[in-house]
Amino acid sequence: MLRSKNKNIVIGGGISGLCAAKTIQEMGQELLLLEQCPTLGGLTRTMEVGDFCFDYTGHFLHLSHYRTPAEIPFAGLNDDDWQQVSRRSCCFVAGKMIEAPIQYNIGQLPVGVYEEVVRSYKERPIFDESVPTTFLDFIIQGFGQYLADLFLIPQNEKTMAIPLERLSSKAVKRFFPPPVEELVRAGMIKNSSTAAEYNSTFWYPRIGGIGRLVNGLSTGLDGVHVRQPVTAIDLCAKTVQTKSGEIFPWDVLFPSMPLNTLCRISNDPDLRAAGEKLSHSSTISFNIGLNTPVKPEFEGIHWIYVPDRSIPFYRVGFYSNISKGTCTPGTSALYVEVGISSEDLLVPNIVRDLQPKVIAALEDLGWIDSRDISCLVVNIIEHAYVHFTEERDRLVEDILERLHRYCVHPIGRYGLWEYTGMEDALESSMATVREVLS
Fold first, then answer.
1. Lowest-confidence range among 91-95, 178-182, 261-265?
2. Are residues 314 and 231 in the same domain?
3. Where are the beta strands (DSSP E) in 12-129?
4. pLDDT tens per residue across span 186-214
5. Phi and psi for 191 in degrees, rounded to 5?
6. At 288, which helix (H) or strand (E)?
7. Last residue of one domain, picked from the residues 129, 161, 180
8. Mapping DSSP to helix (H, G, I), strand (E, B) and coil, where does residue 120 land?
9. Which residues span the domain enclosing 396?
10. Which of 128, 162, 180 is the last residue of a domain?
11. Can you state the percent helix, strand and coil of the chain, rounding each to 5?
């Protein structure tokens, strides 16, 4: 069924799509938002399960453009509902909790390990910023082979589910602590203060989960159609078709769906071929509710990086340490993340096979007692980390240039095939809409 023409269509009701839709509405222009799920929010949703609130996985609001959540456009947030948290994250290395980032806290390592890390750092290859390098070379040249093998290589390969030699050093961007000589050497002194990073503090709701941000962005928004997954895009005809068979014409399209998916469902063979070359990893998040508090040794820790390749997960986070408002008193909530390749996600029974291994590993570490598990919810994040391969920049540039010819302007972290935080996604979406429609 062919619908009447809509001047502007937004695909995806995550925070990028919602912010784009609010901007279009503010500009007084026609709007239609198509969301495939029954509810809005995308990966920034919160689920209430019994006595617990679980986010899809750990999502935290790092602010640099705005002083507080109340300043975020369109969200209608009240600062009294939010708390600013000073991050405490750790790396589980050599049987010990080391403050993150480990490369700035080398002095906390056990003596023998510490000596090897320092020796290797002094013998590291010369780092030349002007020469293009792989992510693997960047790590070894920046921090030395021993620390690379001990933590940096396995941690990042478990997280992104790809050998680091296949990634460009551009994968680092601002989310990976750089090899600053004075900071690394300062960190070799025990109890040295950690250098400030982009995520040294973050905001989180006092009660409930990060879905509070979605609630604000979606309030008062018109033209929203949920349960409408887009299955085909005809670029020349400027129409999108949904799974229900409905066809929606448009003048301008703002898709926040993953760029490779957008290419795949288009009727442009060159776009489909280019999209096939974009690489990404997936994450399976196990959200666990315990009918006991966290163990004393984890009090105050927000998340832990786990580089050991024999352990299936790469990170464990504690919702209840981030905010007491995520569960009832006397209980605790955590999330456990497993990184897998996009190909492995298609393996039959992957979640069923992983779940007992995850629980067993947590018990072997002594981090939980499985008898204390009150509930367990699994979320599959198909597009977790985009891969900054050597050809990524050229591919994305060519894809976006081709899409722009048809008035298609992707937005958001996955629409632009980027690695950005929530605030960056909001800002970028607003800027794109205003630039295109002004």
1. 178-182
2. no
3. 32-34, 46-49, 52-55, 82-86, 89-93, 96-99
4. 999 865 555 545 568 999 999 999 999 99
5. 65, 20
6. strand 280-290
7. 180
8. helix
9. 6-42+65-70+209-278+389-437
10. 180
11. 40, 25, 35
